[in-house]
Fold:
Amino acid sequence: MTIALVDDSDSDIELLHDYLSRYCHDHHVYMTIEKFTDEHIFLNSMQHKTYDLVFLDIYMEHMDGIQLACEISREDPKCQIIFITTSEEHAVAAYRVHALDYLVKPYKYVDLEDALDHYEQIASRFARYIELKEGRYRTRVMLSDILYTDYSNHYIQVHTVSCIVRSYMSFDMFLPMLSPYANFLWCYRNCTVNMDYIESFSHKEFILKNKERIPIASARRQEVLQLYADYIFDHRSKGDLLS
Structure:
């Protein structure tokens, strides 16, 4: 899950970041959080990045939050918005632009927790994820966040855009969890790669967008490369590959 915090107050944005970190710890979820104190820099970022959820202050220096929310909706209709502001007077306008929630400063952690629980209920209708046991807890990992997976010392390691999730289980038990999804390719012994994150490849390896290198099994090289070529052809024609 990728979240943007847009607020021109450094102290307010740090408090929100702390609350979100606490939520991740309490609910065993993972977030990539980006902070913006300038709304124009944030809008420029949306040109090359997708955000699942944006927290917006209404009183910004160059553009009010309602106007900014309209810009976000035009750029990405799937992006959810939660307003955090000092006044209740814009609540009606906020809901007219289909904001998910509206928090009034100073708010408490429990208020943010309720808003995020609401978001997760909405997002779970559309998002795909796998659930893994990590220690004593079950952790939900969004499929769209997974770069690749590998296996080490009896643990499945799921490498995501923000962290590594480790779960004690065999690769044979884990592989069927990803097999229904066309973007995951079993490319090497106990390793699968999310083809949406492949930037380039050679005869022996895939190179991901974060520059990590994933080997291709020599015994299955022709098959693996053909499966990748078929996936790219099919999905690029539909326009649904990650940019």
